[in-house]
Design goal:
Elements lengths: L1 H9 L5 H6 L13 E6 L4 H14 L3 E5 L8 H11 L4 E4 L13 H13 L4 E5 H10 L9 E7 L7 H13 L4 E7 L6 H10 L4 E6 L4 H5 L8 E3 L15 H7 L10 E7 L7 H12 L3 E7 L3 H7 L5 E7 L13 E2 L1 H6 L4 E4 L5 E4 L2 H17 L13 E5 L3 H12 L3 E6 L2 H11 L2 E4 H4 L8 E5 L22 E6 L8 H8 L3 E3 L1 H17 L5 H11 L1
Parallel strand pairs: 1-2, 1-8, 2-3, 3-4, 4-5, 5-6, 6-7, 9-10, 9-11, 12-14, 15-16, 15-18, 16-17, 18-19, 19-20
Antiparallel strand pairs: 11-13, 13-14
Helix pairs in contact: 1-8, 3-4, 7-8, 11-20, 14-15, 14-19, 15-16, 19-20
């Protein structure tokens, strides 16, 4: 489906660039076909005036004045100040409670305020579909030349079918809208495909957004699918709808200004996934070499459904794959790298030019090389032949995708592997594959047949928000010479802090992330990774 949509964009339907030329003003710092609008949620006029200046500094193209957020509002006085003070074009919204806003007063007074905003020079008015005919009739013959009416429909429950959305857009167009705005709620990330579809195929400029974390990609990819504008909050705590990113993240993290209809889309598939630093690394790397690509957070519930829905060559062109999908994604692949097949888990997926999906596992390379370097630093030898893991007792906590990668990688290097998992059966299944020993997580606490063991935690114990948790007591850690934790939020987990206190060498999860990222970047692009850039970014943000 999205392949057809892409073709529609390429053949000029809708003519995104034509929409841009009708605004009568330059975008703030770029030529992206989609405008970036920052909603102002201040409760006083003075606060909104301060916010509009901040929006200009951040790089927004226009501001949305949310009049229903004002605690005290005198339309003639306040609208004149707000519109005349704005350093950017203005979109005025006065959202009633029956459409998710805060205004509870008289409907005529609300519409009077919107008409006054038009007369005072607002560039856009957002009016709800339910009252759009009435409002548009009331301003007939009185509209300034450069004024546009956005007619909006908000659905806080779900995302309807393509047919239902198509009918909705037709109703909006028939109401006299200059611009259609369709906002739904994403219950699954694949719901966004229907938003992309109507945005591309609408006969008038359209704002298409799916709310919620599963709808985030609909906001970021507006320029790819010809959206008229997208919303970026002034700051994290000032969002005007669920799932709204900040304007700063849109511009700096996702390189919003560089996204075009032919931009390739990459991302990380996971659940949860919002904590991932991968978009930070890959988007900076893409930008540094001028690649026309963007890397997103994909909050995915059903991997098979995701790949079946987003099947175009330039969408999900490559994906990183994290918890809990490293094994489930295997069945969606057309080809699996022999090493990944042996491990039984993947973390890197590449879509070939013919649309087929090839999977790799780069986790084991990233983690094992980091652990080897840690052991070499302990032994005072950076260039010794052979692996310092050879002969070491290597304890892996967790038997999921990352656990399999570590167990397989350590065994390959000659380590004696012990797999510990919450359920013994799963631990034994993996231990048997690598010629190792199995036990439950509870048994590890008192397992120390020798000193100088290596510990690798691949469970989620200690990850944000439960940062006070740890999979192993401090007392048990004294038997280990090196401790690795695959968790990287936080960077310093309780496990690593306590391991360092006992004198063990520690290896951060960020090191595994960086090193496996080098391999993924190479698989995605065919180019060597900008290693120094990756390290600088992780040092700054981890």
């Amino acid at each position: 489906m999205l392949q057809k949509e892409k073709q529609s964009i390429q053949h000029g339907k809708p003519c995104v660039k034509c929409y841009g030329s009708s605004h009568g003003y330059e975008r703030n710092g770029g030529s992206s076909p989609t405008l970036l609008c920052t909603p102002l949620m201040g409760t006083t006029v003075d606060q909104m005036v301060i916010e509009m200046r901040k929006a200009k500094e951040i790089g927004a193209d226009l501001i949305e004045l949310r009049l229903d957020c004002l605690r005290s509002f005198d339309p003639p006085r306040d609208l004149d100040v707000l519109i005349k003070s704005s350093p950017l074009p203005t979109l005025v919204t006065y959202r009633p409670v029956w459409e998710g806003g805060q205004y509870e007063g008289d409907e005529k007074k609300r519409q009077d305020a919107l008409r006054l905003a038009m007369q005072l020079g607002a560039n856009y008015i957002d009016v709800e579909l339910e009252v759009a005919h009435e409002f548009n009739n009331s301003i007939q013959g009185k509209r300034p030349d450069d004024f546009k009416v956005i007619v909006s429909s908000l659905n806080f429950h779900n995302t309807p079918s393509i047919e239902a959305l198509g009918n909705l857009v037709a109703r909006i167009q028939a109401s006299g809208a200059d611009i259609a705005k369709v906002v739904t709620t994403a219950l699954d990330i694949t719901d966004c495909s229907r938003i992309f579809h109507i945005t591309v195929h609408s006969q008038i400029p359209t704002i298409g957004i799916a709310m919620g974390e599963r709808g985030l990609i609909s906001r970021i990819l507006s320029p790819k699918f010809g959206g008229f504008l997208t919303y970026g909050a002034l700051e994290t705590g000032a969002i005007s709808a669920p799932g709204q990113p900040t304007a700063k993240d849109l511009l700096d993290l996702y390189n919003f200004r560089l996204i075009r209809p032919d931009t390739k889309v990459y991302g990380i598939i996971g659940k949860p996934v919002g904590h991932s630093k991968s978009p930070l690394l890959f988007n900076a790397a893409f930008k540094s070499v001028g690649l026309n690509a963007v890397y997103l957070h994909f909050l995915v519930d059903d991997v098979e459904k995701f790949f079946n829905t987003y099947s175009a060559v330039d969408f999900a062109s490559g994906c990183s794959c994290t918890i809990p999908h490293k094994e489930a994604a295997l069945k969606c692949m057309d080809e699996i790298d022999p090493i990944a097949k042996k491990i039984g888990a993947i973390n890197n997926i590449v879509r070939r030019p013919d649309g087929t999906l090839t999977a790799f596992n780069t986790d084991y390379i990233g983690a094992i090389t980091a652990i080897e370097d840690g052991l070499r630093s302990l032994n005072g030898s950076a260039t010794a032949l052979g692996s310092p893991l050879a002969g070491k007792l290597f304890i892996v906590l967790g038997a999921g995708g990352a656990g399999k990668s570590l167990a397989y990688g350590a065994a390959q290097k000659g380590a004696r592997v012990v797999v510990a998992n919450r359920t013994f059966e799963r631990a034994k299944e993996l231990a048997d594959k690598v010629g190792g020993q199995a036990m439950t997580l509870a048994e590890v606490e008192h397992f120390h047949p020798e000193e100088g063991m290596v510990l690798a935690n691949t469970t989620s114990v200690g990850m944000k928000p439960k940062i006070d948790d740890t999979p192993l007591s401090k007392d048990a850690l004294k038997h280990y010479c090196l401790v690795f934790d695959a968790i990287y939020t936080p960077k310093d987990t309780r496990l690593l802090i306590e391991a360092r206190d006992t004198g063990a060498v520690i290896v951060y999860g960020t090191e595994m992330l960086i090193r496996q990222g080098f391999e993924q970047y190479k698989n995605f692009t065919g180019l060597p990774a900008p290693e120094d850039l990756f390290r600088q970014l992780m040092e700054k943000h981890a």
